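Q: My labmate handed me this sequence with no annotations at all. I'd like to see what the chain might look like in three dimensions before we decide whether it's worth expressing. Could you predict it?
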Amino acid sequence: MAKMSSSQRVLRVLSMLKGRTMDGLSNGEIAQALNESAVNISRALAVLVDEGFVTRLDTGRYAPSIA
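A: Here is what I predict for the chain of 67 residues:
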């Protein structure tokens, strides 16, 4: 399998979060599911949060933004 680009990673993270508005997923859960490092997932999540697509829940987990 070819190395995933940062754009692909961001889209796959967003896709994983679909339907998880209430409970979200942790950075580690996403990293494990996508076979990626936690650092790479943190970067992808930071982009998604900055752009308003994802929100960080009070639990520290990430969920798609309602907006």
